[in-house]
Amino acid sequence: DGERRAPARLEKSENSWGSSQKATKKDDDVTVTRQMKSILNKLTVEKFDTLYQKLLECGIETKEHIETLMREVFDKATTQHHFIAMYTDLCVKLNQWLNDRGICGEEGEAVNFKRILSNQCQDSFERYLKPPADLEELDGDEQFEAKMKYKTKMLGNMKFVGQLLCAKMLSSRIIYSVCTEMITYGSEETLETLCAFLQTIGPAFDSKEWRNHFQLVDIFHQVAKLCEKKKIASRIKCLLQDVLDIRAAGWQKLRPSSAPEGPMRMDEVKSKWIKDNTDPKSAKGGVSTPIGSTPKADGDWETIPTKAPRRGDSTPGGSYGGGRPSGQDRDRQPASISRNSTRELPSTPSRGSQPQMQRSTTPKEGDASGETTPSSKQRREQMGAMEKGSLTGGLGGMLGFRRSPTSAAASAASGTSSPA
Question: End-to-end CA distance of the chain, in Å?
Fold first, then answer.
């Protein structure tokens, strides 16, 4: 009984203050991670400044947030090769922001962004150095697709690492160890990745001013030896030889590349389109005219209608196909002189037209109104004249003949009435 009993240990309940704080922190971490992923999915060159500011305001406060952000950035860069330069700029800006902000870890030490970046680079390099273990279990199109995904991620990872080295975000001492590791492994994927990595870092580090330049020279000697090995595939030999040729030319591309261009802003796209679609002949005179457009200078070129005019449509030069010109066109048209313009031809009724009947001027007996009624004889003569004139006029209109004034006068002298 004289012995002291140990105090009972308190157990944490689910509703305690500490448990509620941990749950709140976990929910906050999930929210911050979701917001970071959402912003990275929308990140483009055009919206970089706006979305970068939103990324800083999404709640990045701990070392875990930064590590999660770098994993997401590396996953994006390995598959989106044309945005690698943009993700490199993002890392440079984040490094400056963290140095000014001074975020500390759980033990109170300052978070080193470059160290986090270096650890992520090493993890990615070790992950993609060897192909996935289950790759050999696949066959056919599934195996080919898995190989292409693996090679794409490996190429993107090393291109991103090379851009970070050029931006001085990583230590240049890793160059020799990385290249040696890829040469030692010696697969087609790693040797192709070596070529892409050397082309990325070559212009920045292939200089005698770099203190470790001799190590890079040794790497190029090993590349030259690989070109002489017979077991190396011909395609890989060509890629290795291209690296040596580009280095000999001062890292200037010897031939146009079929790789897609990097992202551009909308104003850059517009200026490039104008440059590609400008007629060089018109550009010599100081005025750039896109190909396919019509210059608007007065009196230079004649405007040609793009659509053939229909019969009856009026145009600035007059009417086409016998159409009736407008009032202004008639004023501009010169007076035309025809063969029969000095003679006035009598009108001839067309075929099928009915001339008006002539009424007799002899008044009828007992007609108080003074109206005249034709007799039966006169009515027969008029009907005969109508039939004769209709037949003559119809045949003449079909054959293109018209009665001359002489024949008209002769008909009048003989007493034959002509229809009006």
Answer: 154
pLDDT tens-digit map of 212-247: 999 999 999 999 999 999 899 999 999 999 999 999
Distance set, CA 224 to CA 2, 64, 179, 185, 251 (Å): 86, 44, 14, 17, 16
φ, ψ dihedrals at 278, nearest 5°: -95, 135
6 Cβ neighbours under 8 A, 6+ residues apart: none
Burial group, residue 221, by CB count within 10 angstroms (0-12, 13-18, 19+): exposed
Each residue of 173-188: b (16+ CB within 10 Å) or e? ebbeebbeebbeeeee
DSSP state of 110: B
Locate tokens 């007076």: which residue?
335
Count of all residues that appear for the chain in the document: 420
pLDDT for the residue numbered 340? 45
- Of 152, 87, 157, give the one whose Cα is nearest residue 127: 157
Tokens of 172: 């240049």
Residue 152: φ, ψ to 5°: -65, -45
- Enumerate the β-bridge partners of residue 318: 315
More confident call, 162 vs 143? 162
pLDDT of 59 higher than 50: yes
CA distance 64 to 74: 15
Instruction: Give residue 65's region: left, alpha or beta (phi > 0; psi -120 to 50).
Output: alpha
* Contact partners, residue 340, CB within 8 Å, separation at least 6: none
Residue among 67, 77, 79 nearest 117 (CA)? 67
Query: What is the C-alpha to C-alpha distance for residues 393 and 398, in angstroms, rounded to an integer?
Result: 9
Which residues face 319 on adjacent strands? 314
